[in-house]
Amino acid sequence: MADGIRLFVYGTLMSGEPYHHRWMEKARFLAKARTVPIFQLVDLGSYPGLVSGGETSVVGELYEIDESLQAVIDRLEGHPHLYHRTSITLDDDSEATAYLLPDKAAQRFPVIPGGDWKKYQRRK
Asked: Which domains does the chain have, with CATH numbers?
């Protein structure tokens, strides 16, 4: 995929999660990844939200996608009304695109300790 977009996913788009097969099947998996520790992950019920301003290194996966898949994921994530697509820094100092929930929208939801959606789901 020439000039692909590096997308960091941390919830239902990860492998083994409900939306992975439908949306990420054509994406190229690059690596398991973590953010730098300036975020928090919140539980929105059936999916998580990534929020800036925390102290957690959030666990996820890194994929290479093209612009057409990015447009599909924009709609799925409600960009720019629910989630905001933005560039973030991963713990290896590389950049990736991710979908962040505005701080104001996340205030009433519980924080996911450790920033790992899959581990949190197993404990529920």
From this structure: 5-105 (3.10.490.10)
Q: Phi and psi for 98 in degrees, rounded to 5?
A: -150, 165
Phi, psi of 61 (to 5 degrees): -135, 150
Q: Is 77 an active-site residue?
A: yes
Give the model confidence (pLDDT) of 66-96 as tens digits. Answer: 999 999 999 999 999 999 999 999 999 999 9
Considering only CA atoms, which of 95, 74, 78, 5 is closest in space to residue 44? Answer: 78
Q: Is the pTM of this model over 0.70?
A: yes
Of 25, 61, 77, 95, the catalytic one is 77
CB of 12 within 8 A of CB of 47? yes
Residues contacting residue 38 through CB under 8 Å, at least 6 positions apart: 52, 53, 54, 55
